[in-house]
Amino acid sequence: MDNKLAKAEASHHEDEPRNFLDRAIIRVGDALSLLFIVTALISFYEVIMRYAFNAPTTWVHETASFIGGSLFIIGGIYAFAANKHVRVVLIYDAVSPRKRQYLNIVHHIIGLAFAGMLTYSAYLTANESWFAPWGDLRLETSGSVLNAPYPALLKGLIFVVLCILVIQFTLHLIQEITRFRKSKDV
Length: 186
What we know:
Oligomer: single chain
Pfam families: DctQ
Mean pLDDT: 90
Low-confidence stretches: none
Main location: membrane
Organism: Enterovibrio norvegicus FF-454
GO molecular function, one term: transmembrane transporter activity
InterPro entries: DctQ, TRAP_DctQ
Structural class: mainly alpha
Number of helices: 7
Number of strands: 0
């Protein structure tokens, strides 16, 4: 019974934010989640305007897609901050707590390398969508009737979010190594 209690308590602590950045991401993410309601409301507005008044809008679809896409991009770092990201637990749950510590460290090293490579790629993509080849600021637009700069803004957001992800992985890796060293001393 005590073993089950210890496991439940350990998993409870794993679900909590691990540091100041995780807490900030969760706070901001919770506030931004209200934008899903805005997306639903403007989509409802579009349906009413289109079918009740035969006056479709030119801005709703792109704006709703931009808001939803932005929220899903931010959702990645939110899931990592809340420790709700997808993981394969088949092996993880079958090994000892000490081996889990090794797996956590390996996971964070590989995740950090992957996030770093993605960040570099996102930088190149965002830079291309924000600046003309001659260096002038020129945001890439959608090319639609609205012609909003949503593509450039999304690419910039992806870059910023990936930079945050690199910092998250770094902080989590430091915490895992510290936890590993402390458990070694015990």
